[in-house]
User: Fold this.
Amino acid sequence: AGVWRGGATIFMRALLKAYQVTDRIVWVADSFQGLPKPNLRRYPLPEPSSLHKVGFLAVSLEEVKQNFARYGLLDNQVKFLIGWFKDSLPKAPIKKLSLLRIDGDFYESTMDVLINLYPKVSSGGFLIVDDYGSLPNCRQAVHDYRKNNKIKDKIIHAGGEAIYWRRS
Assistant:
């Protein structure tokens, strides 16, 4: 959830292909328009107010598809969920996830992913949060969600800014 140019999801699809896994889907969820304007009425935490205006963060669906195709990985095991997370994820046709990777940047985006997709992560599955170390509001969303849902699984720092945990 949050793919920018598609690199992590392309890597995920490449791993499935390398290990000849044919019964899994890589879901690619993004607005393909950049970051949303922060909704301070819904989540009054101060977000970096200009990030939604940064042009290079907006990568089109066509460009991401071209990046998959460049490696021969644009096939029926790749499905795209297009739109802001608050709109696309509640109706996403996903039943189970073994891995959920979040690159939502903002509190609201991170929380939208957690609320809508974390319940679908299987026991033993993994959650990765990209911006945990660098964006305080993303980190706060993770802590708020974990507290509200009594999640005690150990957070592991993955190097750089990312963290992950394995769902018990």
In short: The chain has five helices and six strands. The two ends are 21 Å apart (CA to CA). The CA atoms of residues 32 and 60 lie 5 Å apart.
